[in-house]
Structure formats: structure tokens, C-alpha cells
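quick one, three chains, predict together pls
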Amino acid sequence: MRAEPKRWESPSVRRLRKAGSYTILTVLAVVVLFPIYITVVNSLLRPVDIASRPPTFFPTHPHWSSYADAWNGGHMAKYLLNSFIVTIAITAGQVVTAIFAGYAFAFLEFPFKRTLFVVFLATLMVPFEVTVVTNLDTVNALGWYDTYQGLAVPFLATGFGAFLVRQAFLQVPRDLSDAAALDGYGHWRFMIRVAVPLARPAIAALTVFGFLGAWNQYLWPLLATKDDRLRTVQIGLKQLRATSLDAVNVTFAGAVIAVIPIAIILLLFQKHLVRGLTAGAVKG
Amino acid sequence: MGRVLLQGVTKKFGDVTAVDHLDLEVSDREFLVLLGPSGCGKSTALRMIAGLEELTEGTITIGDRVVNDIEPKDRDLAMVFQSYALYPHLSVRKNIEFPLRTRGVPKDERAAQVESAAESLGLADLLDRKPGQLSGGQRQRVALARAIVRDPEAFLMDEPLSNLDAKLRVQTRAELVELQQRLEATVIYVTHDQVEAMTMGDRIAIMKDGVLQQVGPPQEVYERPTNLFVARFIGTPPMNTIPGALAGIGPDTVIGVRPEHLQVGAPTDDGIDATVAVIESLGHERHVICRLADATMVIVRQATEIVPPAMGDSVRLRYDDAHAHRFDAATEQRVG
Amino acid sequence: MVTNSRAQRRRREASLGYLLLLPAVTVFAVFIFYPFLRNFQLGFYLNPPFPNLPKRWVGFDQYRDILGSDSFVDSLKTTIAFAFLTVPAGIALGMALAVAANRKLKGIGIYRTIFSSTVATSVAVAAVIFSMLFNPIVGLLPWLGVNPTPPIIENPDLALGAVALVTVWQTLGLTFILLSAGLQAIPEDLYEAAALDGAGATTRFWRVTLPMLSPTLFFAVVIGSIHAFQSFGQIDIITNGGPFKRTNVLTYSIYSELTTANHAANPGKAAVLAIALFVITLGLTLIQMRVLERRVHYAR
């Protein structure tokens, strides 16, 4: 926190200064929140009212039917389910592969360890967009087009995750692994019983980070699926918008539905996300 | 059968020789202290016994089997670390139980053993706490409890008291010795603190630069140090060394005299010329620090009943030949 | 009790190491390194205008034709313009939010949550919301007087800016969280020392806050630029690369070559564009590191 200058101020000056801070903060908050607010408002209006001028900012008679329309007619329920399946698979995969690789890099000695670590870091230099051409062929060849595995498998491991967990494992005191070796704990048991519990903050950060990234994917689900039954929320939302202006309230409702699960998760795990981001900053 | 035998044990890290042909025998139920300044190789030697470092050369025998190729967990040793190495996410109970779980001890038996180990170290009320909620002394006891619950062939301890405050250290020192007697355990104890070594060890092994300097009971090491390094390292304040030329026996010899064996005499007495530089009073005794003709400083321990000299006085220092240690000035080895 | 020679133990440890790396290495090999390398090979072949005809080897001709074409240069210019429209504005706004929220006031936690709220939105959500706000019939921007002809997202002069606005808003939460964490990591005694030296609020910002924050800012610029070069969803939803390809950024052009909407899919061309995207991203990272590193005050 910023240290305020410690000179004497009369109570009225201090009150004025405070009021100024709150005014600035509130104006900024309104600007940031406005698009989300108007989305919620519009989702509760009839299309006619949305188009009427001046616009309605405070709906007095909310119409909730748009949510039912988005949920059923707009298939948002199915899209959400698909997103959850794919996102959970990707997140779990990323966490497990990161723990495994992080453990190998932090606790084991083997030939070509440094080279392999550089290979892991090199993956961070290749944007996914660069690999889509062939990945589409690969997924087709494996018969994975329009399948959950086609959506999830390419993302089951990340260099970032392995790096993050390795750093956390390196913080585990050497004495602990020595003590465990004397006490008869092999590598697997030490990893599961000691290393992973001690690296919990980093693993939690990776989990939130991975979840967010997987949930928000757009290009790959668009390329790798055609069947509406396998579309994820992000792609589904695009289709919802494409329908027509007569149902514009349904589109807004769909956007709200798409945001709610991730908003809940973020509110619950805000701290971990911040930690994951700052870990990246220290690395960079 | 807690005998530990080291024969020609050597450890090289690249070009650096951390431990150089160490021969050492620790008998059953013995409390052996490995003593030396930091970087002398004592911790490396301990870690090799534990199996945490591989030997470059030599053999280590525990009981009657050579353990060079035996994994740490199969050596039947328990180790107490300087940092205590407690698992921060586990309760005290789980920490103490940890080594038993891996050995397939049945649950009821485990609980009983944990209870009794905790009881004997006064930890019974702390079993459900996490290490983070304990004081330094309590953590140290948990580390001990985790070691004794195993009933191993020998205990290895790596500076286990160095993270305690001075008062607690003195108390724990005595408790450790008592514990060792009660368990009839073999202990190999690493420290850089010569007071710990003197007070706890049945024998002391002193190392310097990876080389063993002397092994023997504390009194013997104190009374007959084999070289100047050991002479200076053992005892507080340290042994005075007086150039032979000043002592009138020629430049090839260095005389070592402990502070309690020097007396301050009048300038007209026989002895070595000196000037009183500083007088430190410790309450129960006094240190008279004198400067010799070649600027060497020597310390004289004096009882408080003796009338002190004044700072700046010219004095003569005397000692009994029986208490004078002679060392070769070139090799620093004991002569006679 | 098991006796193992040293060599055996080493071998076992190494095998475990490789086993633990295997899952990740497999994914990397199949879905990152192989497709990355295959791009170069694909680039040598020209795909026929009709399916079922054989591909034709054209060697470096395809690279030359594509990378020298007007459409590629235009797309590159668009992408760069997009980065310049999003990165500085995004960081400036994020910084404003972070500084405003870096105060000890009652209820500041609520403001922080609001400022980070856009992380809950995805690119697709933001794009859908804003495309509605831009809409001339139901949108608010036209009502507020921003009502050009042709309408915003069909307007060659405004479309890219509109997409950039969506991007800045959507990434604002992330930028805020990042810069806030950086601000909070600055030790308070530095401000106190500066205050004792007689520095006012402005001096403290320029002399203490900015230099101490520079590693975080550096990271934000690099990540922001890389994200800008990979932007796709908002363009696909709002403009489809139009009008007149004015929002046809590189990633969108790769996508266009892969989908069969108007013409036969051309993986060869897409591959060459992907290589270009990779080289630019890599070069950008390296240049930024080199240029910024000199001015970055590494506090850690």
C-alpha cells in the first residue's frame, strides 16, 4: 500500500481527499462494469424494449423467459456441459503432467535433463495457432474430429505448468527428501505424500490458470468440431448471436449464462489466480 | 550391534576432496562426536554413513554388513537434521509415525509406539499440532521422537542443537546424553561447537579440510592435542601459543599453554616479558590479556581472589613445564 | 533388504525420470513439435483447386509468393496496427486502475473485485456483448451519437478500432491484477524514504513506482503483444475479418485458409502463414526483451 504523506491535515481536508478517492474509484468502476451491467439489463428486457430509445437502464418488469430460451432452445445447457467436460479433462491432465514433469526436473537425476528442460521451455515459444494446420490433420487421422478427446488431448500438457511446479518443488527443503529417504519413502510416495502437499499453492494456481485457459478456448473448438452436440459454450454463444435480432435478449442471457460458472470459480479462487499470474511475471 | 566402521572413506566433489581417507570406528552404545569448523567434511561424512551421499572410495560397515550399496532406508539408521526436517503439512503425531508407516508396522502398534516416544520427550499434549505451531525446542523434540520411535542401529545427528537459543541448548545437551544412556544407543553427532563435543561425547573425532586430526576421549584430546589445530580448537578461551624464541627454547618449537596454566608475576620474577593490554572480568574469574614482545596476544585466566595487575603494567608470565605442550613450528605436530 | 549397485540405482532413477516426463513429452511431440516442423514441409506443396487431385511440389515458390503478396503485407500491417491499438491503451488503463485501487480505504476490496471482473469474461463473451452494443438498432454506442455510415463494424475506418476496444476491455481485468500485484510488492519504506527526502506524489510516482514496477510492466507488454498477435475470437465473431479485410489479422488469415467456406482449403498456404506468425511472435519477444531490458530496473 502506498504510504500517504505524513504531514498534518485538517479533518475537513482529509475528508475531501477521501471523497475525491471514492469519486475516482466509483467512476472507474462504473466504466469497467458497464458492459456487463447492460448485458444483464438487456437479458431481462423484451427485444422491442432493447431497441426502444431512450434505452432502459433500470428494468422495472424483468422478463426471465430469455434465460429459459437460451438454456433450452439455444442449447446453452448442452454447451455448458461440453465445456465442463473438456475443461475438467484439460485441467486435470495439465496438473498431473506438470506434477510428474516438475518432480522429475526437481528431484531426479538423469542424462539429458537440462536438454529436456530446454525442450519444455521451448514449447512456450510456439503459439498454438502455429500448430493448428497439422493438428487438424492429426485429429482427423486419429478419428477424433467431433469428439471430446479431440478437444482435450492436444492441451493435456504445458511447459508453463511443468515450470511452475518444478519451481515449487525446488523450494521443498532437501532435508525433507533426505529424511524421507531414510524413513523408507520411495519417490512415488514422497511425491504424493510430501512434495505435492507442500507445493499446493503453486498447483492451485496452475489449476485455476489451466481451467480459465481451457474454458475460454475459441479457435480450436471452432476448427475441431462441426457437430452442434459437441460445441462448447464459447462457440455456442457465437451461434446464439447469429440467430436474429428478434431474440437479442436471448443472446444477452446466453452471455450471462456463459459468464456465471467462471465468475463463481474466480470468486472462490481469486487468490490462486493472482499467484499464478505473478509467478509468470517473476519468470518473465 | 550398533557398530559403525569407516575404512578409507573418501568423497570428492569434482576436484574438491571433501573427505579424505577417513578411518573411524564407532563402537556399540558409544556417543561419538564429529567435530570441526564448517566445511571440514564432517557433515559429508555423516551423510555418507546415512547413504545420502555415495562414496568415492572406501567402505562403510554397519553392524556386520558393508552398506556401500545399501539404500538409506535399509541401513536401519535414524537421522536428526539441523533443520529438523519435519513435514510441515503433517501433525506431530503423523510426523513421528511417518517412519513406522513405511515399515508396515500395524496400526495399533504404531499408535502405541508414537505415544510412548512422545511421552518420553514430553510431547504428549502436542501430538495434534502442526510443526508451525511449535517452538524451536518443541520441534527439536519432535525430530528426536521421530528418530527414537524407529529403534535403529544408530542415530545420526547433524548439528541438532544449533537452532536453539543458548539457554535451551545447555538444557537439551544434558537431556540428549540422558536419552542416549537410557536407550543404550549408538550416536554419531556432528557439531562445530567444541563445548557440545566436550560435554556430550564419549570420544571426539576432530576433522579439518576433510582429514581426521585426532580421535579420543574429551579429556585426552584436551590434555594431549596431537597438533596445533586441535590444541587451538578445543578449549575456551583457546590455548595460547608462544613462539619458542620468546620462551627461550629456540625458534623450531612452539609452546602451547592453556590460559588457566599461566600465571602473572612481577617484572622481577622469572618468565616471559609481557605488557598487560586488557583486563576482562567475568564475575567468577578474570581474563588478563597480555601482549608479548613480538605482539602475540596471550590470555591468562585468573581467580578473582588474586590482586589484578593494572593495564599497561610490565609483567612476567610463568608456567609449569608439566602443562606446556610442545609443537614443531614447521609441521605443527606435537613433539614428545 | 535389497542390495543394489550404484549403476543399477542410477539407472532406476533415470528410468523413473523418463517415465514421469513421458506423458508431457508425448503431447508436446505430437501436438507442438511435429506440427511446427511439418509446417515447413507443407509450405513446399501447392494444394490443387479441386479435391482429390494430387498436391504439387513447388518448393520455395509458395513461400515467396505468399510472403511477397499484397494480401500478406496488408494482413501483417493490420496485425501490427491492432497490437499498437491494444497494448499501450490496455496497459495505461490497467495502470490507472491499479494506482487508483492501491490505497488503504474502506471497501477497497469491492473496487478491486470490480476492476478484475473482466477476467470472468471470455473473448467470445466480450465480442458478443460489444457487437450488440455496436449494433445500429439495439446498440448503445449509436444512441450515444457514434452512428457512422456504414455502421461501426462494417466501417473500414472504425472496425479495427472497435475490435481493439473489445480486446482492451476484455484483458483489462488481467492487466489490473498483474500490475496491482506488482504495485503491492513495492516495499513501503521506499515511499517513506522518498517522502522524507521531500518528494511529492508526482515525483514518487515517476521516481519510485515506475522504476520498481518496470519488471512487471515489461512482462505485461510482452504478454500483451503476444496475445494481440494471436487474437482471433473477437474478429471471428464481430467482423469475420472484414470489412474489406480491414480486420484480417494473421491468425484470421490462417483460419480462412483452413476452412472451406469460399474456396478449397489450402493447408500449404496456411502453413506458410503459420510460420510467419511464429517468426514474428518470436522476433517480437526477442526485440522487446532486448530493447526493454536496458530500461528495466530489475528489483528482484
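Residues 66-279 of chain A form a domain with the MetI-like fold fold (CATH 1.10.3720.10).
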